[in-house]
Amino acid sequence: MTGIASRFFIVGAITGVIGMLWGVQMSASADHALYPAHAHLNLLGWVSFALFGLYYHVQQKAAESVLSTVHFWMATAGLVLMIPGIVLALREIDETLVKLGSLLTVGAMLLFVFIIFRYRIRTAEMPSVSTISSRKV
Fold it and tell me: What is the spatial distance between Cα 131 and Cα 110, in angstroms, rounded to a whole number?
């Protein structure tokens, strides 16, 4: 895995570890007040970024496009703003960051949907099961 696929997967894995450690800390302290931020970090950071990375790994034409780089930075900015924004909103301090992060995150997902349709995998391009199983790891 290289390029944009690797970048998405690296950020996803890092946020997955942070989310898990945060969950352990919440459990150990018995303070679950910030669980919505923790859940969003795991879902958007780990799950979504890993799925984006897998998609770009499979769909090389999309991975090589400028749109994939825009998608990466938009999704990353959305995540970086949204998680602390949720914390600030839960603490009733400010909602500006979560609003900005949410808009960027939705924008990144809409861009991803556009990319999927723009670079969709056609049946003829799909590798067969025997081709996949014969690849060396």
Answer: 32
Q: With contact defined as beta carbons under 8 Å apart, do 59 and 121 qualify?
A: yes
| Sign of the alpha-carbon torsion through 69, 16, 113, 59 | positive
Which residue is listed with tokens 């890993």?
Answer: 50
Q: What is the pTM of this model?
A: 0.83
The pLDDT tens digits of the residues spanning 78-96 come to: 999 999 999 999 999 999 9
